[in-house]
Specification:
Length: 128
């Protein structure tokens, strides 16, 4: 299980600009939800397939009501972690490791998503 956490740096300054501090929650939630679903989908695509169990067992969720807001991507298949760390791909299907490359693939796109988050927060700041 890997947890992805987002903390807003300069949060006090940012919150001071809002009358309602909860207004930044929606853009941050949307950002984490998109990233966690993207990692889940990429990990499923990269997962080796024999029966499809590993590929279909990926889950993502976002804990909205905690600080920092936390996104979680998990696969509770018993053999997911040992297979990820083994480096062994006997059937030569999918990638080994599969989860770490999925994270790297999504993080390579994070700059674009960060700009979108910034624009969403700017829209909230302009609202009265």
């Amino acid at each position: 299980m890997v947890r992805i956490k987002a903390r807003i740096t300069g949060g006090e300054e940012l919150e001071a600009k809002f009358n309602d501090k909860s207004r930044i929650k929606d853009p941050v939630f949307n950002y984490l939800d998109f990233l966690s679903r993207d990692i889940k989908d990429t990990a499923a695509r990269y997962s080796p397939v024999e029966t499809g169990t590993l590929q279909g067992a990926w889950e993502s969720s976002v804990q909205r009501n905690i600080n920092p807001m936390t996104a979680t991507v998990i696969n509770q298949t018993v053999y997911a972690l040992p297979l990820e760390e083994s480096g062994n791909n006997p059937r030569r299907s999918g990638r080994i490791p599969f989860f770490k490359p999925a994270i790297d693939t999504v993080l390579a796109k994070i700059t674009r998503r960060g700009k979108i988050l910034g624009k969403e927060i700017e829209k909230e700041m302009k609202k009265k």
